[in-house]
Amino acid sequence: MQTNLLPKYDMSDNPTGCCPRFHPQGWDGQALHFRDKLFVRARTRSLAHVPLNMGSVFARTFKAIEDAHASDDGDFIVMSRDESAWSAEHLFAVTREVPGCELVRLSGDYRTKVFEGPYRQVPKWRKALLQALHDQGKEVTRVYFFYTTCPKCARAYGENYVVAVAQVTPEHG
Length: 173
Fold this sequence. Notes:
This protein has helices at residues 54-67, 122-135, 151-157; strands at residues 31-47, 50-51, 78-82, 87-93, 102-116, 139-147, 161-169. It is built from three helices and seven strands. Strands 1, 2, 3, 4, 5, 6 and 7 form a seven-stranded antiparallel sheet that branches. The protein has one domain: Regulatory factor, effector binding domain (Multidrug-efflux Transporter 1 Regulator Bmrr, Chain A, Alpha-Beta Barrel).
């Protein structure tokens, strides 16, 4: 397991001009290891887990990352998690510090699982992921989701892939 390496995300397959088409090969069942991996943290407001300002927050964050030349197409992921029914945290992988943005560094071991379907299935996917990792002797400390395409692009592509990324601890007894 190589440190701070993410599976390939092909940015060139982008017929919509918005979100690239996601190819799940290489993302499912991966073991990731982060050591001080750098992310920009952004937060959105929600109403009963439905994002209210995600478009503007993501646009502003992506622009700041682009202006700082802090992105790498080969190292792309945005990991999101609901902090409550009213707010969500989003972590954008970056290659260097981004002025004016909150930065965080993640360390630890993570496991991935690819799902396909409507966003409303996230609670079901989370439960399935937790059970599968428990069956492997892994204890999960935090779960993020990588929403690989926006709703408009998911409709255009006819597929809505979501990658669950779970931080795990070593085997438990």
